[in-house]
Amino acid sequence: MNSNNNVFKYIFAAVVVCLVGYIMYIIVQNRSNVEDYSLDQTSTLSNIQTDLRFSIAGLDTINPLLSKNRNVQEATKMIYDSLVTLNGNYKLEYCLAEEIAKTDDLTYVVKLRNGVLWEDRSNFTAEDVKFTIEQIKWGGFETIYSENVRYIDHVEVIDSNNLKIVLTEPVTFFEYNLTFPIMCQTYYQDEEFATSEKRPIGTGMFKISEISSNVIKLVRNDYYWNANKKPMATEITINLYNTIGEAYTAFKNGELDILSVRISNVEDYIGLLGYDKIEYKARDFDFLSFNTTHELLSDPIVRKAVSLVIDKNNIVATALGKGYTPSNFSLDMGNWLYTKDMNIATNTEEATQLLMNNGWSYLNGIWQKRENGATRRLEFTLTVNANNDKRVAAAENIKTQLATFGIPVTVKSVSADAYADAINNRRYECALTGIRLGYSPSLTTFFAEGNIANYYNSEVTDIMNIISNTNDDGVLYEKYNRLYDIYLEDCPYIGLYRNTEVVVSNQNLVSNMTANCYNIYHNIEKWYRQ
Q1: Which pLDDT value is given to residue 264?
Q2: Average confidence (pLDDT) over 455-462
Q3: pTM of this prediction?
């Protein structure tokens, strides 16, 4: 009897030891996934989940060069690397490129990173970069990256790790154009890239493990080249929906961790509770452009007075509504070189003093000046595209604001063709216009020779030349700050507003999110659920 009890005790002890050993093994394995990361203060190793849940609405193709779907472009940044990438402040960082040297105005030599593997473990080489550029440029298909390679004349492979890119004309901050995903040349060597049904392989931190009619599964790429960015997440499920409405419902039901939308009234679709919302400044920037060769508007004091009268918050609140935010300058969407406080509040007292000091008088409700025996009124025509309802509404709002101050404005709403002719040939006094901004800090649209305001300032020209020929951060900071000072004094343009976009995330997602127009998944290597 005692012998049987002893045997039972030994067996029981062995089982306990095995169970403890197994539990310790699981804990160690879980810890190995997260030990290099700082967890949120509310998280522990026992309550985190390393699978994430995203979405794509209206999938066309997962090939990032062929897709025109915004969700695809967002998601594929996790799968397909580019030569360079941009951080949360739109500052360039090297990715597959280790170094880019500008040897003259038209030539760039790119040194590639050593040891990068495609997910099939073949070597990444300069031939892949050349292949990708040639597909975008001459592949015969439409791609959102066409503008990135517009000024590339040809690519020369020097060796497996170095290549030369030659341009047709100089491009300020050209390196910022090299953000397109790189495709594997040997993977497509026996077929046409544009018609291939193969899903591209990548070099990114995640790779596709499964594609079905309703889901794309990503898993961590164990051969990812950047050891400093090993993601905590081991798997990402990208649910596929026919419409964004279906994605709204899924998010509302707790089936998604993040949702990227263009509309600002997302609350109307998913309610008010249970998620975090980030609204960030987007790329569509509207502004007033003065024709600085116009007799009246050639005076920077007049232009500055106008800028001090216009209440941008009023324009957004009254004429535009949700989805817009006041904006003072093209780079104020979060660019790393937007270093000066340019949040100019309305100041009619300063505007009044400026005009009075410049010989203007406020008579009969209008600013006037006596010159050469004649009375001159401070008034001008504001040209706007009649087909753009938002800009017409903003123009009418500006007209009302300036009229209240004593500056009559005639809003001239014209057809799209007449508007384009007025802008292109500088046949306007003042115009309400806009631009879809790129990602680089280039200001050539506003200050280069031939700019739409006919604006010239010799110091600005010198600064622009320096900016286009340096990569020194210190020099760029100094010159951009000086440029802002001149801009605020001369006021060839008045920034008005820009659109906004929205990311919502489940409150169980720990991400420290810094979404911007380039990438909503910044620092995804640190994301997890709890």
Answers
A1: 80
A2: 97
A3: 0.89
- Tell me the CA distances in angstroms from 275 to 78, 168, 246, 264, 268, one per residue in order: 23, 49, 17, 15, 14
Q: How many CA atoms lie within 13 A of 470 on its CB side?
A: 15
- What is the distance of C-alpha 285 from the center of its chain? 13
**Residue-level pLDDT at 300:** 97
Q: Which of 20, 177, 7, 200 is nearest to 97 (CA)?
A: 177
What's the mean pLDDT in 203-217?
97
Tokens at 286, concatenated: 């509207």
Residue 189: count of CB within 10 angstroms of its CB: 10
Q: How far apart are CA 75 and CA 207, in angstroms?
A: 11
Residue 133 has φ and ψ, to the nearest 5°, of -60, -40
CA dist 225 and 248 (Å) reads 35
What is the chain's percent helix, strand, coil content, to nearest 5? 30, 25, 40
Concatenated DSSP letters of 75-138 = HGGGTS-BSEEE-TT--EEESSEEEEEEEETTEEEEEEPTT-B-TTSPBP-HHHHHHHHHHHHH
pLDDT of residue 341: 75
Close Cβ partners of 466 (under 8 Å, ≥ 6 residues apart): 475, 479
pLDDT value, residue 47: 73
- Reply yes or no on whether the pLDDT at 23 is more than 50: no
Nearest-10 Cα torsion for 161, 64, 336, 314: 170
Share of the chain above pLDDT 90, in %: 86
**What CATH superfamily is the domain 282-500?**
Dipeptide-binding Protein; Domain 3 (3.10.105.10)
Give tens-digit pLDDT for 68-97. Answer: 999 999 999 999 999 999 999 999 999 999
Number of residues that this document lists for the chain: 530
Looking at 3.30.450.40, 1.10.1040.10, 3.40.190.10, 3.90.1170.50, the CATH number of the domain 51-279+502-529 comes to 3.40.190.10
> pLDDT tens, 284-311?
999 999 999 999 999 999 999 999 999 9
Query: In sequence order, what are the residues at sequence separation of 6 or more whose Cβ sits closer than 8 angstroms to the Cβ of residue 504?
Result: 251, 258, 259, 261, 266, 270, 275, 276, 277, 278
Tokens of 57: 């609405």
**Cβ atoms 92, 176 nearer than 8 A:** yes
